[in-house]
Amino acid sequence: MKTVVLHQVLELSFLSDTDYANPLWDVQIQLHLQGPSGQSAVYDCYWDGGRDFKARVSLDENGCWAWQTTCSDVTNAGLIQQGQVQCEPYVGENPLYLHGPIQVSETGTHFQHADGTPFFWLGDTAWNGVIRGDDRDWQTYLQTRAKQKFTVIQCVLPHWRGDAEDELGHTACSEQHPIAVNPAYFQEKDRRFAMINEQGLLAAPVILWSHLPTDLGYKLSQEDAIALARYIVARYGAYQLAWLLGGDGYYQKMGIDRWKHIGRRVFAERHDRPVTLHPAGLRWPNKFFGNENWLDFIGYQSGHGDVPEDIQWLAKGPDPQVTSTHPVKPVINLEPNYEGAIGYHNKVLFTDEHVRRAAYWSCMNVPTAGVTYGHDAIWNWNKQIGPSEGHGDWGGGAIAPWKTALQTDGITSMSIMKTFFESIDWSTLQPAEHLLAAQPGDIDPSHHVTVSRTADGKCIVVYTPVGCTLDIQTQGYEMQWFNPRNGQYASASDTCTPDEKDWVLLLKHVD
To answer: What is the fold, at CATH topology level, of the domain defined by 2-91?
Structure first.
């Protein structure tokens, strides 16, 4: 009998009795699981080259599980198997295994582990990391981000506009109907993908990048897109992750009904991990998808604009039409300003100041759930200075190597921010801008002040991106200034910031 550790990945292998011309379409194999308490689950198996088929599962209860496969080709005895597996307790400190998979909290405002432990989303956009990174470099990067308190790694799995083929010249699939997947492409990525979880980090892979007509999520037919997505979910869905079904997409332009149908078909039977869409910048397509059962959280991209209209869009956050879903769903900015990038319009160089501002705004203008960081060198994953593949003259064609962005002022700010939120009851923070008597952002959007308050009213957090005197009632509260640049606290006797830089005012109710 095989054994597997609780919440880790079990791989089962099956040898077909026959060859298939295009296994993605010609045969369907499913694994049926029965747990110790009678729970059941059904997972797609996937083709891994030749006559090899596999299933990957993650078990959520200790004890003996029974499994059996079913096959659309009822004459293929090699693909119709059964057996048992023993699930054993996890012993260790990896939070993903210790506390269990990520899910939406009962309040719908944030994420938590299966055991109820709150999960703060602090992501990094390593879009090309799994595709381009060799194992040693990838290990260095993941270990560094884990030490810096990051919790999520966003990446792309199949080829996309930023990497038309991998270093061996492989692509994930053909692009003419009916598509054929290339198992060799994914085999090269399997180890690096598994390493994300091994470092205690949640994976957040994009399944179908969808920005340009040349991207898979845009150009593939609906049925081909579903087939590729189901293959990727079958291959990687047992890992601890959150799915980004589409990447950088103009979903209204491609068709709302198309994407609704893709989501429903891909996650009809296997929906045990959170799912969202990553949209193009300054768009709220999730108002069209918010009530879809397969979409578990609202992802958005404030992007890389640097004009007042873009800044205001970021600072104010979503309108009620976006967040009034039933049930309530967490809201995450999946791509704010990249540190080290140049703004679209005024060519502003985005520094740690812009990173902090976007992060605090994004965490506080919605019920707090977290935010994603990005660096121009990390997402490209260039090994030497050079262009950004598929992105024209982005960065002047001279993007720095990924290693230059392992430690930056912006990353330090992110680590400090996460430590700050973890020091309070962040999972009940709700926007409370009404507590301000005057909003400086009404005059200049770059001065927008955000306010959050915990559900019990005992803690108020105020972030100002520039020095000012905050017009807020403080009676009954003890005040402290928190410096988001160095993590230091200082007592506060009034609401005038200590200097002209950005500050956090922390108010705690005096019992």
So the answer is: Immunoglobulin-like (2.60.40)
**Hey, which bits of 301-433 come out as E strands?**
331-333, 370-373, 430-431
| Per-residue buried b or exposed e for 408-433, using 16+ beta carbons within 10 Å of the residue's own CB | bebbbbbbbbbebbeebebbbbebbb
Give the predicted TM-score (pTM) of the model.
0.98
DSSP 8-state class, residue 476? T
- Residues 492 and 474: their CA atoms lie apart, in Å, by 11
User: Spelled out in words, what is the top-level CATH class assigned to the domain 96-428?
Assistant: alpha beta
- 347-369 pLDDT per residue, tens: 999 999 999 999 999 999 999 99
Q: Is 95 helix (H, G, I), strand (E, B) or coil?
A: helix
Say if residues 143 and 199 touch (Cβ distance below 8 Å). Answer: yes
CA distance 4 to 6: 7
| Farthest CA pair distance, the chain | 80
Sign of the Cα torsion 42, 47, 51, 52 reads negative
| Residue spans per domain, the chain | 2-91, 96-428, 432-509
Q: 3-state SS string over 146-209? A: HHCCCCEEEEECCCECCECCCCCCCCCECCCCCCCECHHHHHHHHHHHHHHHHCCCEEEEEEEE
pLDDT tens digits for 144-193?
999 999 999 999 999 999 999 998 999 999 999 999 999 999 999 999 99
